[in-house]
Amino acid sequence: MPDQPFVFLPLSYAARPPRVVVVAPLDDTHWVQWTAAALAQLSTVWGCSGSVVVPASAVGHPAVDRCLARLDPDHVLAYTPSWATYDALYPGAIAQLLAAKGISGEAGAAQFEQMLRQEPWNGRVVHDAETVADNLRSQIGTNRQESHVQCSHLFDDANAHELTPLSALTPTPVLGVPRNLVTSAEALAYAMHVGIEASGIGGQIPAEQWREAALRSTDSPLLSQMHPGTPDGAHAARSHEAGRCAAITRGFRRRERVAVLGDRPEDFALAEILRQIRGAVTWIPWTEPGVSDMWLFSGSASDRLLVTSVSLSMEETRRRIDARWEGRPVRQVGPTPEERSFEVVEPGDIDLTHPFIVVLKDAWDQPRSLPATVEPDGSLQASLPLAAEVPRGLDPDKHRWQVTLTATNHPVPPLGVLGSPAVTAPGQSPWETFVRAADGGITYWSHRYDFVPSGASLAGSLASPRLAWPGIKRILQAAGSVNGIALLPSPAGKRAAITERLLGSRAALEALAASPGWRLLDHFTPNAINANHPEGSWWKLKSAVVLSWEAIAAHDNKGWDLKARREQIDQWTSQGVLRRGLILGCGHCPILEFYPLAEINQSYRCRRCGGDNQLAKDRWRPVADEPSWFYDLHPAVLELVTNNGDVPLLATQYLRNQYEARQALVCEEFELLKDGSRFVELDFALATTEELWLGEAKSNDSLGKSPRERRSEASKLMEGCALVGAAGLILATTRAQWADTTVEALRQERQGRLGAGKPVPWISLLTGLGTAPKLTPLTSV
């Protein structure tokens, strides 16, 4: 067996705090206080600027779950309060317990109370939150090995367990909102941005002041106003600066701000998660307009505001934001009415691409290189363990962090199914550390999780796993296996794979489809017309159509000069795309065949009758004193050209020229099998650093002849996306637009799936392939 190819894989290294989702207990009368208590504890953890608190009742709402999946947390934790916190929420709870147990006496009661206040309180709402957290952990895929979870709870005590305290890393004073003051939704709306500190400060702050603070977020003048006496250089606990971190994104930063209306837990959860994904997000739980609205509409005309809500209907959301707009205290003076700088949208229509990633400011985008072997399916296996290292500014004895490695030319979409088995090399111990796909690459816990002897060296205490970067087919197989779906190459996919191997890469195959050479190859197809070919330069044989150099030179393409054409023919011949040979007849039977150069000797045997022949003038065609070289096309390439194989190639080439898919992995045409039967055929799949896309490409503008056929095909394509976890479906065509009947079938199927609570991919229409390609979301058509 030949050795597998060996490459050096260029990587980008980053150290970052763990991303955490804290599930807060919930009862309807105290949900703000429970959420504030969880946020207060999270505010003490390094990485709180990139983590979120979610009330238990909000988990399960489609809009919230969609954002949680995009956040892609490292840990899902259930918040467990202490008796001290419970007593603060329900004053007298400890006194009632003491009385019920009959504990009396000043000294005994005080000692028992002091001990009790530090103990976890495990009431029903806490158990409910634990159940929600466990289900969510399984749903989105976090740091776990089989049934063992690395980190499961956030406790109200000084023991941070696997999480590093913020105080261990922050170089400056940290401020937050005193927890005793967060008793209203307005106060929580501000504390969401700043963080909460465990302070016993009492008093009252007017609701209007909380509202202004929530809308202004964390600008410097506001911090001085809301937190008098703040020392110089202080940062809010939930600011990235407090944890020596920075928020980065691999895409172009969006200018739209987001405002979430509504006073329900799910509205808070949506705003809280969107803050980490998009940045500029405000939660507005109060209903009445006020002076503070001047900060809501203070952005520039190009900085549009997206307004949404989970608990309110679109009509009510629009009514409330219109009332704020009409009553805004600051207006532009001019001859024409001021343009409304906002748009009301459904929560599910908010763009979540290019999310922010919170990384250690001094340890990200660092170049690394790792020796790897290339598997037959395009997967990469690390040949050596990673060298353990400590990023500047961290202490391995005090701090815990995540290592994230991304390969610029081999993205890994953050799918929950791509856990440790999918991204570690064979032979790697699954218990050394917790490894999974995240942030477009692979992330793992910094320290060894298995046995570490006392006094171990730095290399012995830090994790150094051998990793694997799965290829696109392995990604699809892993994603489909969860739903019992198998992946099978289609005949067209096999032809494309063979041609790709001949040319050397998918990019070269796509370039061929977009080049003048594809039109030339079309002359080798059985249905080609031999117009303008010199006599005797084009022959249609029983086995193939063959062309001589004269026919190739006569191919009408003024933009492709003969020198470049000649070089291309020689390259194709050396690659095996074309074969050079002669047209020879047989002296024993009336057959004419093409014989490749490798099969030609002075004597040759007829393929049909087996008769021996001599290479002489009366054997070759056309009749001439010396034979002429002819070229035939590789059978797999011939079938690819005959069956419009250029259409999906043009589609993936266009998509990979878009910013978000520049280095995408591509899979040629394949079939999905459900219960052993062919379910749907897809023309291509792309894996980017953020998501998985599936696509269907056609030379016409329809998915079927009848409404039933079109709806059935649309249903299969969308269900195929759901079965492998694909975020997007792309319908591509060479026509200038898709037929209205096709667009309507897609809309109807999309609405039907939404109404039934089924997952629906983002649908985009790619038109004008080969001429003027254009990509348009279905919602804009």
User: How much helix, percentage-wise, in residues?
Assistant: 25-40%
Largest sheet: 7 strands, antiparallel
Quaternary structure state of the chains depicted: single chain
Poorly predicted spans: none
- Number of helical runs? 23
The largest sheet has its strands arranged as: 21-22-20-1-18-19-23
Instruction: Give average pLDDT, whole number.
Output: 89
The structure class reads alpha/beta
SS strand fraction: 15-25%
Note the gap between the termini. 53 Å
Note the topology:
Elements: E1 6-16, E2 20-24, H1 31-42, E3 52-55, H2 62-71, E4 75-80, H3 83-89, H4 93-100, H5 106-117, H6 124-140, E5 144-145, E6 148-149, E7 153-155, E8 174-175, E9 177-178, H7 185-194, E10 196-197, H8 207-216, H9 220-226, E11 235-236, E12 245-248, E13 257-261, H10 265-278, E14 281-284, E15 305-309, H11 314-326, E16 342-344, E17 357-360, E18 366-374, E19 380-382, E20 402-407, H12 420-423, E21 435-438, E22 441-445, H13 458-461, E23 468-469, H14 472-481, E24 485-489, H15 491-503, H16 506-513, H17 516-521, E25 538-540, E26 545-548, H18 549-554, H19 562-575, E27 578-585, E28 592-596, E29 603-605, E30 612-614, E31 620-621, E32 630-633, H20 635-642, H21 646-656, E33 665-667, E34 670-674, E35 677-682, E36 684-687, E37 692-698, H22 707-723, E38 728-733, H23 740-755, E39 762-767, E40 774-777
Parallel strand pairs: 2-3, 2-4, 4-7, 8-11, 9-10, 13-14, 13-15, 15-16, 37-38, 38-39
Antiparallel strand pairs: 1-18, 1-20, 5-6, 12-17, 18-19, 19-23, 20-22, 21-22, 24-34, 25-26, 26-32, 27-28, 27-31, 27-32, 29-30, 33-36, 34-35, 36-37, 39-40
Helix pairs in contact: 1-7, 2-10, 7-8, 15-20, 16-21, 22-23
